[in-house]
């Protein structure tokens, strides 16, 4: 009796295994209902697309250079780079940096600001972001910059107001700027009270001035600060001649 039961159970096990294998095979061969079939009648003859959005055939590799050429030729890219170039040109004319300066762009995104600095003649302009975008932007953490103290003459960020820890973000900006260098940030368009709040994040810097600008189609407030870390230079007092010149020029 026990032998018959054992044989019966073995047959059930084999049948279950066969059914499960068949179901998996059908699922593998069948196109999921969530896939969208592409009508071949609307495709150009030289375009090779998979039969559905679930196609897993090999896709052609696009080199970084080719991808960048496509990106940099778009109207949106050109317009955004020009807006940054206009901003930096004013700062250059105010002698916040020169073509010999070492510049850093934090939270650089795809590299609009870095490209604008290069176009103005700065060969030593570095961009960093959590996700790299070569050759303009390298990967690094804005809250833990991989640079020595005072490594740069000029540091810029357009996204301080979107940082998770703004005070630490500002502190890292100050740390990597040499004494007498400049920190420039662009935040969401704001008034005098908000500008002072942003300036207070930079404990080793003095506010030079602020101005509303347009960057990449967004209205932003540009805030300029002079870094004074106390190593060999006197602290710039509020109302100094440099600050008055900036305020009069706004």
Care to describe what's here?
This protein has 250 residues and is an alpha/beta fold. The longest helix is centred in the N-terminal third of the chain and has 28 residues, at 2-29. A hairpin with a 2-residue loop joins strand 6 (205-215) and strand 7 (218-227). Helix content is 37%, strand content 20%. It is elongated. It folds into 2 domains: 1-29; 72-229, Rossmann fold (3-Layer(aba) Sandwich), CATH 3.40.50. Residues 231-239 have low confidence and may be disordered.
How is the CATH topology of the largest domain named? Rossmann fold
For the record, the count of structural domains works out to 2
Total helices: the number is 7
Question: What are the segments in which pLDDT stays under 50 over at least 5 consecutive residues?
Answer: 231-239
Give the SSE layout.
Blueprint: H1 2-29, H2 64-72, H3 75-93, E1 103-106, H4 112-119, E2 125-129, E3 137-139, E4 152-157, H5 166-175, E5 177-188, H6 192-200, E6 205-215, E7 218-227, H7 241-249
Helix pairs in contact: 3-4
Brief description of this entry?
The protein is 37% helix and 20% strand.
Observed structural traits:
250 residues; alpha/beta; Rossmann fold; 7 helices
């Amino acid at each position: 009796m026990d032998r018959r039961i054992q044989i019966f159970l073995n047959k059930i096990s084999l049948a279950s295994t066969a059914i499960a294998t068949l179901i998996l095979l059908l699922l593998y061969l069948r196109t999921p209902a969530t896939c969208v079939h592409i009508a071949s009648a609307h495709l150009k003859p030289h375009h090779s697309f998979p039969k559905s959005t679930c196609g897993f055939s090999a896709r052609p590799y696009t080199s970084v250079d080719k991808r960048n050429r496509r990106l940099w030729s778009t109207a949106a890219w050109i317009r955004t780079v020009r807006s940054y170039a206009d901003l930096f040109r004013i700062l250059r004319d105010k002698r916040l940096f020169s073509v010999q300066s070492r510049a850093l762009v934090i939270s650089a995104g795809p590299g609009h600001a870095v490209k604008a600095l290069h176009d103005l003649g700065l060969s030593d302009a570095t961009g960093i972001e959590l996700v790299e975008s070569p050759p303009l932007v390298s990967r690094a953490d804005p809250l833990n910059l991989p640079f020595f103290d005072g490594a740069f003459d000029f540091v810029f960020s357009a996204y301080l107001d979107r940082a998770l820890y703004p005070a630490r973000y500002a502190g890292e900006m100050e740390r990597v700027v040499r004494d007498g260098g400049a920190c420039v940030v662009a935040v969401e368009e704001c008034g005098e009270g908000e500008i002072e709040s942003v300036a207070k994040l930079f404990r080793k810097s003095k506010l030079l001035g602020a101005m509303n600008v347009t960057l990449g189609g967004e209205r932003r407030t540009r805030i300029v600060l002079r870094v004074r870390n106390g190593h060999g230079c006197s602290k710039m007092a509020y109302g100094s001649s440099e600050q008055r010149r900036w305020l009069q020029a706004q």
